[in-house]
Design a protein that fits this description.
With about 290 residues, this protein is an alpha/beta fold. Helices cover about 40% and strands about 20% of the residues. It has a seven-stranded mixed β-sheet with strand order 5-4-3-6-7-9-8, with helices on both faces. Strands 1-2 form a two-stranded antiparallel sheet.
Length: about 290
Amino acid sequence: MNIKQIENILLVGGIEPNEAKIEAKMLVKHFAGLSDIDLMLKDEFEMNTKLLEAAQLRAAKRVPIQHIIGTAYFMGEDFIVNETVLIPRDETELLVRKTVEIIERKRTNLPSLHPSNTLVLDIGTGSGCIACMVAKLSSVQVIGLDISTDALRVALENATKLNLNNKAIFRKSDVFSNVREGEKFDVIVSNPPYIPPSEKAAIQKEVSFDPKLALYTTDEEGIEFYKKITEGAPKVLNNGGYLIFELGIGQAQKVHELMDLNGFVDIEIQKDLAGIERVISGRLAVVD
């Protein structure tokens, strides 16, 4: 048995050639327990029923490779994922890096601001990938909120795996419902659901395996959660605190208007490598 056979199974199932090559390697490494060096040195390996079944499942059902192997690679780390959480996407790295940049900017402008005193709120934390990477890259404490108990279990597993238990902590909450009275944050970050119901039928097959709560809004503009978070943010942000979102395609202007209406200034929009407006950030105007 060889890696080319696994790749061919994926190709027959309609997986794009470049993806098939990468995914065949991922499957062989996971199910045959081989390293990159092993794959370079060996052309053949023993017949593996689990590996064959996994390749056939990926090809026939288009189950995401991350669900099959149980992990997703994001910003240099392997995050535990399953059907209860959104699989981390490459574009979300832009959101994390913008958040870390803003945290560092605040510390530069306010030298007395110590990382341990900086609180970040991650709304809709899912796997905890945003909360964990912000905590790891900036040394701040991040509280991740999610309405799903199952998602929070995954997030906690990931924080434990990365040794971030005291820096990335998690709480069950429907948006701001379980933010405690008097609790204030320096930064709120979110990759909220933004796909409107009308787009469900056209969604990529692999994406359909993600939890519906993490994908879809109930409104046809896809801005339901941007609106809820933006309107509630001023009540829990410190003066001069920041709000940062990942954006769906074509939603930048609508979210910009929402932030402007709710007292945010210095609003910036950042494009991803494909030229899509992907991240928006704004600072809550200081009130004397």
